[in-house]
Specification:
Layout: H1 2-31, E1 39-53, E2 58-73, H2 75-85, E3 89-99, E4 105-116, E5 129-130, E6 133-134, E7 153-157, E8 162-174, E9 177-191, H3 204-210, E10 213-225, E11 230-243, E12 253-263, H4 265-311
Antiparallel strand pairs: 1-2, 1-12, 2-3, 3-4, 4-5, 5-6, 7-8, 8-9, 9-10, 10-11, 11-12
Helix pairs in contact: 1-4
């Protein structure tokens, strides 16, 4: 019986030992993914910001500028792209809506962001755009990969429609979570006018005819929880200017927007709570279950060897050997 039990335990030990790396290196890359029907809303604020009064084309200080960022998954579009891409794809329709202290729209910029559900790498397909302009993204945007590393990443900037490194600056603690801090500086760059202008009847084409151009720079900061790859906090030191042209009536430039944009406190709390929950699920597949199965395998192997050794322990009674045949005598 001990021999049979030891063999059963040995088989179970091999099973759990094999399951450990299989779960981590085979199952996790296929099971961990961004859901196609994701819906997120984030509110950011810039207090005591500088904002352009478009009616008089003068910059003024305002108590607060609010930016509402919305990301909505398009399940039907993702399923359509998956048929030709041959992998799990997520399609996010984003909208960055900026409003002044009076609640009126300052600008709104839509995006369509298409990416791999597992790796967060861009997937190039029809419909990929920023503010109606077709783009071909390289690098990440909005979210880092699962199991983020301590290194620089390529990050796509929607204003300039270009990709540049965002630099890993160190490990910090934020609201009880270990996070990686990343920072990117976008130098002054000429960027397109938003398609939707805050003044009715004025279009980007009308402004282009005056020779006035729009320029932008920002210092982008993210605190990223590395297990999930989700930013738990983000800030931008953001500046925009209108330069040259007859629209400015002889002035070289005027500030269109300048402010330190930060996530609103209630959205930080919500994001941290959500990330902590998702972090546990990712750790189950990458650490808790693989290491747990490996430990169970080692324990079962030890028990199997122990039972095998006991079954062969010396000193136990054994059956007597048959007597040797004796010669027959007359």
């Amino acid at each position: 019986m001990r021999r049979k039990a030891s063999l059963v335990l040995l088989a179970l030990a091999v099973f759990f030992a094999a399951l450990s790396p299989l779960l981590r290196w085979y199952a996790f890359p296929r099971l961990a993914k961004i859901p196609a029907n994701e819906y997120q809303t984030m509110v950011l604020e810039a207090k005591n910001a500088t904002l352009l009064d478009y009616n008089h084309l003068t910059a003024r200080t305002v108590p607060k500028v609010t930016i509402v960022q919305t990301l909505k998954g398009d399940v039907e579009a993702s399923e359509k792209i998956e048929k030709t891409a041959g992998r799990d794809v997520v399609v996010w329709d984003g909208l960055s809506y900026v409003q002044g202290p009076d609640g009126k729209m300052v600008s709104e910029v839509p995006e369509r962001y298409i990416f791999d559900a597992h790796t967060q790498e861009p997937v190039h397909a029809t419909g990929e755009m920023v503010d109606g302009d077709p783009v071909r993204r390289e690098g990440i945007e909005f979210k880092w990969p699962f199991l983020t590393e301590k290194r620089d990443y390529q990050y796509f900037d929607a204003q300039t429609r270009t990709t540049a490194p965002i630099h890993y600056k160190g490990t910090q603690t934020f609201r009880g979570l270990k996070v990686y801090y990343f920072e990117q500086t976008v130098p002054w760059t000429k960027v397109p006018m938003p398609k939707t202008m805050p003044v009715k009847g004025i279009t980007p084409e009308d402004i282009a005819k005056t020779g006035t151009t729009r320029w932008y720079t920002t210092v982008r900061k993210f605190w990223v929880e590395p297990v999930t790859g989700a930013p738990v906090n983000g800030e931008e030191i953001h500046q925009e200017e209108l330069r040259g042209g007859s629209l400015l009536t002889g002035r070289a430039k005027v500030t269109a927007f300048a402010g330190h944009v930060k996530m609103r406190e209630d959205y930080i709390e919500h994001t941290v709570a959500l990330v902590k929950s998702n972090r546990t699920l990712v750790l189950l597949l990458t650490a808790y279950l693989p290491w747990g199965f490996l430990l169970v395998g080692v324990l079962l192997m030890s028990l199997s060897l122990y039972l095998e050794a006991r079954s062969r322990r010396p000193g136990e009674p054994t059956a007597a050997a048959p007597a040797a045949p004796q010669p027959v005598t007359a």
